[in-house]
Amino acid sequence: MDRPTSFDPALLGKYDQPAPRYVTYPRRARFCEAVSAADYLQAAQASNEDPIPKPLAAYIHVPICHRRCRHCTVDGIVMHEPDTTARYLTYLKREIALQGALYDHDRPIERLSIGGGTPTCLSDVQLADLLNTLHRHFGLEKGPSRDVSLQIDPLNIALERMATLAALGFNRLNFGVRALDPRAQRAIDRSLGVDRLVELVDAARRARFQTLGVDLILGLPGQSPQGLSAALRALTELRPERIGFYRHSQTQPGRLLASDAGLLLREAALALFGAGVTQLTAAGYVHLGMGQFAWPTDALAVAQRNGKLLRDTEGYTAQADADHIGLGAGAIGHVNGNYYQNALALPRYYVRLDAGDLPIWRGFELGADDLLRQDVIRRLMGEGRVRFADVERRHRIVFRNYFAPELVALQPLAEDGLVELQRGALLLTPAGHLLMNRIAMIFDSSLNELQPRRLQMLR
Ligand code: SF4
């Protein structure tokens, strides 16, 4: 379904509150340390025993960077030194061997992303070693359906590496551009000229990368509508398949927050978001949701049109529901319906692997109510609608009874034109599409403040 844009600043301002991005449900803050490596072993085994096992996906986290950016709010980042990076790779390979032994070998990894941090702190030789290790212990899909992506720091990558990375088997690159507006760049001490970005994109196209993505941050000091508009004009000329906006988090601690009072006020950041959505959709991009855009022929936009767009631990995906393996310090896996997160701090990650254990730190095993709510939230965030009959069939409930308090709570949002409550479905309107996680929060049992009302209704 293509969605027209509908940006109403007053409406957006009224409902814009901090809300989870729902790459996991329940959110990470609810993960607990009672979930252990033993639980993960059982989940992996159960996933193999499924009559039709799900496809496998994997995310590898490389928490290493060349330097600490001023705006960084990522936990557990260490600085690149040849020894530090080589040591991390050694442990990562140990974890891959342990994890690979858990999964049936007729389940190759079909979707792989390597992110961080700055994964290109690993040399081409080290990346080749990493991919070979994965291939040895899991198998990596080689066919046209494979999706193998790498996060790139455009400030620290040589043009010549594009061809090598393509030869290694990567077919999707994500450029962490962050800002192209010189004033915003000065604020975060990252200076990337548009000319350099053009060179990098040209080199990636020559190397035949199928999908290129660019990430930008909104809300940085000095960012102006004119600066953003110029940056987006330059970007749309390059036409990356995917563009992502991330709002600079004003709730997470970061050095930028401590040292700079010039961060944009929420209203100004919202106005930038609205202007960005309008400009990109006018240029032909499809807004998937959560500030993520795709060119209409990109797999994500096609999946959205076909009602098959999913949201998982890495954001939007066109891949069918997968068992998702998290590898590396702090990585999150989603296996057999439950979440598992590795130790975040490198010393803890290393100690567990030295003992021959999986480095699982914490997780969340979902009960029936969690699975139901996860299903509803994923449908809202992916398809933009929930068909009650589908949910009732999958979870054996009567939607209007089970979610009676939520449907009452949605009424004011319906009156404000954010959702449409039909007889058998809940739909996000174009305006609601811009606030989808705020709307999804109503179905989040830990945030929706509806439990007392539910208990009253049950009495
Ligand atoms: S490249 Fe990303 S992860 Fe690394 S320091 Fe900068 S913002 Fe943080």
Automatic annotation (TrEMBL):
<dbReference type="InterPro" id="IPR006638">
    <property type="entry name" value="Elp3/MiaA/NifB-like_rSAM"/>
</dbReference>
<keyword id="KW-0408">Iron</keyword>
<dbReference type="GO" id="GO:0051989">
    <property type="term" value="F:coproporphyrinogen dehydrogenase activity"/>
</dbReference>
<protein>
    <recommendedName>
        <fullName>Coproporphyrinogen-III oxidase</fullName>
        <ecNumber>1.3.98.3</ecNumber>
    </recommendedName>
</protein>
<feature type="domain" description="Radical SAM core">
    <location>
        <begin position="50"/>
        <end position="288"/>
    </location>
</feature>
<dbReference type="InterPro" id="IPR004558">
    <property type="entry name" value="Coprogen_oxidase_HemN"/>
</dbReference>
<keyword id="KW-0949">S-adenosyl-L-methionine</keyword>
<keyword id="KW-0560">Oxidoreductase</keyword>
<keyword id="KW-0963">Cytoplasm</keyword>
<dbReference type="InterPro" id="IPR058240">
    <property type="entry name" value="rSAM_sf"/>
</dbReference>
<comment type="pathway">
    <text>Porphyrin-containing compound metabolism; protoporphyrin-IX biosynthesis; protoporphyrinogen-IX from coproporphyrinogen-III (AdoMet route): step 1/1.</text>
</comment>
<keyword id="KW-0411">Iron-sulfur</keyword>
<keyword id="KW-0627">Porphyrin biosynthesis</keyword>
<comment type="subunit">
    <text>Monomer.</text>
</comment>
<dbReference type="InterPro" id="IPR013785">
    <property type="entry name" value="Aldolase_TIM"/>
</dbReference>
<keyword id="KW-0479">Metal-binding</keyword>
<dbReference type="Pfam" id="PF04055">
    <property type="entry name" value="Radical_SAM"/>
</dbReference>
<dbReference type="InterPro" id="IPR034505">
    <property type="entry name" value="Coproporphyrinogen-III_oxidase"/>
</dbReference>
<dbReference type="InterPro" id="IPR007197">
    <property type="entry name" value="rSAM"/>
</dbReference>
<comment type="similarity">
    <text>Belongs to the anaerobic coproporphyrinogen-III oxidase family.</text>
</comment>
<keyword id="KW-0004">4Fe-4S</keyword>
